[in-house]
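Quick illustration, no need to memorize.
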Amino acid sequence: MADREALERELEELRERLSREDRLRARREDLSRQAEELRERKAALGEVLAKEEADVDALEGMSLQAILQTVLGRKEERLEQERREAVAARLRYQDACRALEDVEARYLETAGQLDQLRLDRRRYEALLEEKRARVKVLRSTDKWYGVTYREDKPQVVAAIAAMTQSGLYPERLWDI
């Protein structure tokens, strides 16, 4: 009896864990979409960052633009503006990188949970098979009654009532 109760408890625990599977699959799909969007955003922000850094390099070097800005007397002002834009672009790019890392970590965690659920499902199916194998078939010479057709019901009801009155069945048969 204790083995049967332990088996039922484990089956119930596994059923509860397996009930999370659909939510985890939906979460994994959502995280996959988020990761793809963040990869695209990271790539776009990487291009913006490269352009801003190229603008700073051009003004700091001996480019035609640097010489022109120096002659006009606006090189330092322009260089400071380009540096601010490059810093802002770098910060946006780093934020996108961190967000992507976070989503990828949550994706891997969710995938790991789904892998565990696959193991739980195998264990659950094995326990169900074990439970089926434990069913004991009792031999009896008593008459068997069954309801195949609607017309069979009155005869079966009368037979069960007679067996209950004779003491073969308890008064509350289904409470056993």
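The chain has a mean pLDDT of 88.
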